[in-house]
Design goal:
By secondary structure, the chain is α/β, with parallel strands linked by helices. Helix content is 42%, strand content 15%. The strands form two sheets. A seven-stranded parallel β-sheet has the order 6-7-5-4-8-9-10, with helices on both faces.
C-alpha cells in the first residue's frame, strides 16, 4: 500500500511510501517461487517507486533487511521501521464471558483442548502442516482435542480433501454445525472471541511479514506454536510466549504440538507474558505517534 501526501509549501512535494506487510513480496511469495518474470517486474516497480519517495516504512527490522539486502529496493538510511498497531484492549476485556460464548457456539466441552489457526486459506500459510500435525496429536494424545481453521480462501476445498484423506472428522460451518474434531469456521469477525475460546494458537506459514494472528494471540495471553519464518521472531518471545519450529518440519511441529496439548504447565508458562510483550509495542496509539513524528520530521526537512 502506498500512501502519498502532497506538500505545497516551497513548491516541494512530499511522498511517503508505506509497504504494509511488504505486499509485493510477502503476499506474492508463490509468485517469487514459481514465476521469476513477474517477480522481477514487481521488484523493478518497487525500486522505481522507492527512488521517488522521501521515506519507506518497513514494519519490522527483518523486512527492512529484505528491502535493503535481499531485494536492493533502497539504501538503509531511506527506510524507517515502524511496527503495526492495533486496538488490543478488546483481547483483555471480558475474556471469560467471551470464552463461554465461543465454546458454547461450537459445543466445546470443558475438558477439550481447542487448537486454532487463524488466517487466509492460501498455499503460503501451509495449513496442510497443521492438518498432519493435528492427525498426529489425535492419534497420540489421551486428551480430547478440537481444532478450528478460522478463515477462508482459495485452498479451502483442497484442505478439506486433505482432511478427508487423513481420516480427520471435519465440518464446514458454512453448511452445518457439529462437534467434529476439526471445524472450518470461515471468517469470524470478532477474533477476540476466538482467541478467548481457544487454548492454543498455531501458525504453520512458509513465510510471514508481521502475522496479526500471533499479536492478537499474545494480547489474549494464549500459548503459541509457530514456524520460525519471516518476521515472527520480531513479535514473539521464543520459549516465553511461543514455541518456534523449523519451517515445514512435520515431525518437530507434530511432537511439539502434542507436548503443548499434553502439558497444562507448558501452556500456562507460555500464557504469562504475551500481553506484556505486545500491549505497547503493537498498540495503535504508538503507531499513530510514530507516524506523526515521521511526517513532521520529513515536512521540516
Amino acid at each position: 500500500m502506498h500512501q502519498k501526501q502532497g506538500c505545497l509549501d516551497e513548491g516541494r512535494h512530499l511522498i511517503v511510501m508505506f509497504l504494509l506487510l511488504f505486499i509485493p513480496f510477502m503476499d506474492m511469495f508463490s509468485i517469487l517461487i514459481f514465476n521469476s518474470l513477474q517477480s522481477n517486474t514487481f521488484i523493478e516497480i518497487e525500486k522505481r517507486l522507492a527512488r521517488k519517495t522521501s521515506k519507506i516504512i518497513a514494519v519490522s527490522e527483518i523486512q527492512k533487511n529484505e528491502l535493503t539486502e535481499i531485494y536492493n529496493i533502497a539504501k538503509p538510511d531511506k527506510i524507517s521501521v515502524i511496527p503495526l498497531g492495533f486496538d488490543l484492549l478488546r483481547f483483555q476485556e471480558n475474556m471469560a464471558e467471551k470464552r463461554d460464548v465461543f465454546r458454547n457456539q461450537f459445543n466445546i466441552k470443558n475438558d477439550e483442548i481447542a487448537i486454532g489457526i487463524i488466517g487466509r486459506l492460501v498455499p503460503v500459510k501451509n495449513h496442510q502442516l497443521f492438518l498432519k500435525s493435528l492427525k498426529y496429536v489425535i492419534e497420540n494424545s489421551n486428551k480430547h482435542v478440537r481444532a478450528f481453521i478460522v478463515g477462508n480462501g482459495e485452498s479451502k476445498n483442497h484442505l478439506m480433501k486433505i482432511a478427508g484423506q487423513l481420516n480427520i472428522d471435519f465440518a464446514d460451518l458454512e453448511k452445518k454445525k457439529t462437534d467434529a474434531s476439526l471445524t472450518f469456521t470461515s471468517w469470524i469477525k470478532d477474533v477476540d472471541y476466538v482467541c478467548a475460546g481457544l487454548d492454543i494458537v498455531a501458525l504453520t506459514s512458509l513465510n510471514e511479514g508481521t502475522p496479526v494472528s500471533l499479536i492478537e494471540a499474545q494480547a489474549a495471553n494464549k500459548p503459541i506454536i509457530t514456524t520460525d519464518v519471516g518476521g515472527i521472531k520480531n513479535i514473539i518471545i521464543p520459549d516465553t510466549t511461543a514455541i518456534l519450529v523449523k519451517s515445514n518440519d512435520e515431525v518437530e511441529f507434530s511432537q511439539k504440538l502434542l507436548a503443548l496439548v499434553e502439558s497444562q504447565d507448558l501452556r500456562n508458562k507460555l500464557s504469562q507474558k504475551g500481553w506484556i510483550n505486545v500491549k505497547d509495542k503493537f498498540h495503535y496509539k504508538r503507531l499513530i505517534s510514530e507516524m506523526q513524528e515521521l511526517y513532521f520530521k520529513l515536512l521540516g526537512n
